[in-house]
Specification:
Largest sheet: 4 strands, antiparallel
Strand content: 25-35%
Oligomer: single chain
Number of helices: 1
Distance between the termini: 46 Å
Low-confidence stretches: none
């Protein structure tokens, strides 16, 4: 049913009621976002490790090197 100005609710309220977001069982998760870990190697060079949704890890080192670990699941 389209929004009717005579219904007594604003268009914003109509949109909010139409697009309800129900939290999943438990609580919201950040599983679809990349996780970043910052640290320092034993030789003092800093790094950033990024883990994506599938478990692949990309490590970027301050000296310009980049390591990639691919998670091969069957």
């Amino acid at each position: 049913m389209p929004w009717d100005p005579r219904s007594g609710i604003s268009f914003g309220e109509y949109c909010r009621r139409k697009n309800l977001q129900v939290p999943p069982a438990g609580e919201w998760t950040y599983a679809t976002r990349d996780r970043h870990t910052y640290g320092e190697r034993a030789d003092g060079v800093s790094f950033r490790a990024t883990t994506d949704q599938l478990g692949n890890v990309v490590t970027e080192h301050a000296d310009g090197r980049q390591d990639v670990t691919i998670n091969l699941r069957v």
